User: Fold this.
Amino acid sequence: MAEELVYKKPRLLTDKDFHFCPGCSHGTIHKVIAEVIDQMGMENSSIGITPVGCSVLAYNYIDIDWVQAAHGRACAVATGIKRLNPSKLVFTYQGDGDLAAIGTGETIHAANRGDNIVVIYVNNAVYGMTGGQMAPTTLLGMKTVTTPNGRDAKLHGYPFKVGEMISQLEGVCYFTRQSVHTAAGVRRARKALRRAFELSMEGRGLSFVEFVGTCSSGWKMSAVEANKWLDENMLPFYPLSAE
Amino acid sequence: MAKIKGRLEIDKERCKGCAVCLTACPFSILELGREVNSKGYNYPRVVDLERCTGCASCATVCPDSCITVYRTKQL
Ligand SMILES: Cc1ncc(C[n+]2csc(CCOP(=O)(O)OP(=O)(O)O)c2C)c(N)n1
Ligand code: SF4
Ligand code: SF4
Ligand code: SF4
Assistant:
């Protein structure tokens, strides 16, 4: 019987090895983006905006057009690009330090204006690139290098559910929260991302696609332990969407 | 009855030995071998190929896209 191909590295991923740590969710999320853009036949009409953070080099890995923005400014840059190029798919890719700390203002206003961009938000609850410091999204009790005794609400405030907040705004047409730590999760995430891209191309407003991800280096555990920790600790506070 | 058989090709040089694929396999037929690649990472191998159905769960979760999956239907 003839052998059929079931799965291979997405065509739009370049041959460069990811610089990410072993098991990092950024790699899997990059893969999902490359697959969905290819499925939609949009490789020549997609423009991504990279952030400051571990995913700053996405332009080396996914073979589409990219612009690299200053820390937190991706949604502002995306707004300008989309308004000048309405026929393009324009999306940002941002970590929680980039989007939910230094870039909170730009993000909220892009959402409130309903600009037709897709925001891909990777929430790993720490600043990965700079060594695992507390982020606005860090869970209560979670130990990081700047909260060695665990995050304390009295001292550090509460973890920030930016997705839920953004989803209340008139300009936002779609909010979904996904994860890529299981095969079923990756399959759901593909569908959710495709829906967001389609809504954006229909001019329906801003789509916000959150990925709850791991940072095994920042969390100081193995990749397999980090996936389990995500399941047991991140998902109860940041629950996944059905679609 | 038709039997579905899978086969994997693992790009061992791209692999970082994270073991995420091992936990994704419904039949637990992957393990990290003792050999390392040029970066010093142990990479996975299939210990019981007969049981592989080519479901591609391992390849789907691999953050570094190292696994290619093929499937054959045997009548
Ligand atoms: C203006 C400015 N402030 C601070 C920094 C330092 N810095 C680099 S990455 C980063 C945060 C990264 O965290 P996150 O966005 O969660 O991404 P991750 O690395 O976890 O994917 C910070 C604060 C910087 N590069 N520029
Ligand atoms: S530091 Fe964290 S977010 Fe950055 S590549 Fe490593 S695991 Fe990924
Ligand atoms: S998931 Fe990929 S990188 Fe990790 S051990 Fe398996 S093949 Fe290697
Ligand atoms: S294709 Fe499926 S059955 Fe085969 S090794 Fe991968 S996860 Fe296991």
